[in-house]
Amino acid sequence: MDQVDARVPGAHEMRGHTAAFVARVTARSRLPLDYSVASLRVVDFLIEGLRKGGADRERAHETLFGLGAYVGEVLVRHAGAEWVDLDDRQRSCFAQPVGVRMPDGRVWNPLGRVLNRFETGGPEESLHTFYLTLHGRARRAAAWEDRAAG
């Protein structure tokens, strides 16, 4: 875990890390990574492509981390989440140093969800479905009011 921690940005760095990842990925292709909820289908498609292409977890680590950061950032922008550094107990449970906290206080692990999607590949691991069934999201009206005020 310590070796991974040295390369992983903290919660305060995740927005910038995600933006840099999206800029790199979209510079090479016309992928519609626009931080919309619908773009999570693109993430599912990209992960499935990595799986079918025979990538192993180690070789795909950077891309999978970037996609996990992207999923987390979609939660931040659309579900009212915030990036948080995980405490020791959460790190042990999630095997990740950062996650997102929802408005109701629940902590989720988008980085781990992406790894699960890569490793199992089943439709039950869809990141788009994950978002749609996620507990603790901000109500739509409240999220809209916050964006309008800010």
Question: In brief, what are we looking at here?
Answer:
The chain has 150 residues and is mainly alpha-helical. It contains 8 helices and 3 strands, in the order ααααβαββααα.
Task: Report on the architecture of this protein.
This protein has helices at residues 2-7, 14-28, 40-52, 61-79, 88-94, 110-120, 127-132, 140-149, and strands at residues 82-85, 98-101, 107-108. The protein has 8 helices and 3 strands; from the N terminus they run H-H-H-H-E-H-E-E-H-H-H. The protein is globular and about 35 Å long. The chain is mainly alpha-helical. Strands 1-2-3 form a 3-stranded antiparallel beta sheet, with helices on one face. Strand 2 and strand 3 form a beta hairpin. It has a single domain (2-136), classed as Four Helix Bundle (Hemerythrin (Met), subunit A), CATH 1.20.120.
What tags apply to this protein structure?
150 residues, mainly alpha, three-stranded antiparallel β-sheet, 8 helices, globular
